[in-house]
Amino acid sequence: xxxxxxxxxxxxxxxxxxxPLFSFANPTVDTVKVSTETEVKTKETHEVPxxxxxxxxxxxxxxxxxxxxxxxxxxxxxxxxGKEEEHLTHVGFSLPVILWDNGIxxxxxxxxxxxxxxxxxxxxxxxxxxxxxxxxKTDSAGTFTEDEKGHVTNAKxxxxxxxxxxxxxxxxGLIMLSLFAGLGKSYKKNGSIAKGAGRFFEPxxxxxxxxxxxxxxxxxHYKKYMSFLLTTFFFIWFLNMFGLTPLGVNVTGNIAFTAxxxxxxxxxxxxxxxxxxxxxxxxxxxxxxxxxxxxxxxxLLGTIIxxxxxxxxxxxxxxxxxxxxxxLIALMYTFNSPIGSPLSFFLAFVLSLLEVLVALLQAYIxxxxxxxxxxxxxxxxxHEEAHH
Length: 388
Known about the structure:
Layout: H1 6-18, H2 31-36, E1 40-42, H3 54-70, E2 75-81, E3 89-94, E4 96-100, E5 104-108, E6 119-121, E7 124-128, E8 135-138, E9 144-146, E10 158-159, H4 164-189, H5 198-217, H6 223-242, H7 255-272, H8 275-282, H9 289-335, H10 340-378
Antiparallel strand pairs: 1-9, 2-3, 4-5, 4-10, 6-7, 7-8
Helix pairs in contact: 3-9, 4-6, 5-6, 5-10, 6-10, 7-9, 7-10, 9-10
């Protein structure tokens, strides 16, 4: 299998873009079972319980705001105003909702009214649950049924919607296509000399080739992996940078997205690996035969743990950074004093600068580890075994 072929490049790029777009439906609830369980029917609202103190209400509002920032959404909101007049006005635009529930359902997310209303489509009713941001099938009143553990038991349709995160994935993909296609054309026209924005990105591309790909994969095999390594590096970096803007996108903080990248890395490693790679996993040379049977399952499990660590590392680091940054911003309103608020603002500003570095660092780490895995898959081993 040769990864460097253009059709396969297109397939890999398509998988990178499309895998995070899909979510899976919950199993249909057994009505007989539900009837024997304790059912809690609640109507989801953003209202804060009235029996709390003012400080507790403020703390709960800040917690909900941070949580909402981390979730994906079915509309793109730039900012909101009018809270003092108790009439919120959201400035942004709606996105298309595409559901599969015994047929295709296509409608605008404006029907949800920012999660406050029930959307009707072909006689079916759907509503967004504010705890997880998912779309569930409900009745006309928007009732959610929960089990004793607080988990929603409503049926969940297959969701292929163009959400805020999906939109940013498509936008970054188009930016990369335009940027690097232009860089390639400038190389042809100007005798391998970059022009414009390409002058900034050319040293980064050369660094990935000379300091990441070649040392870890080898000069013989690195070329067929370069397209993937460059794509993942800039894809993660650009998305991380957009996550630090007021747009409120958190693509790399979505575990479905990081899982998609990790799965593709695992598939490329698996299907391009040489026989020496599998030989060292299932029948390790130089090891007593009884130990080979013990080590083989451990080594095989290690091939699965590697992409799992890629997924968790990127996801956890980006989510943690967003939570800390949003919490510091929330402290500005908590202190509400001439000393506490400026101090919180200063800490948030410093952390924002640090997050800019982390955004680049996480892209580098993912690319470096992927190159290490590819290098181990194509490494050639020379064994000198003594025969007696």
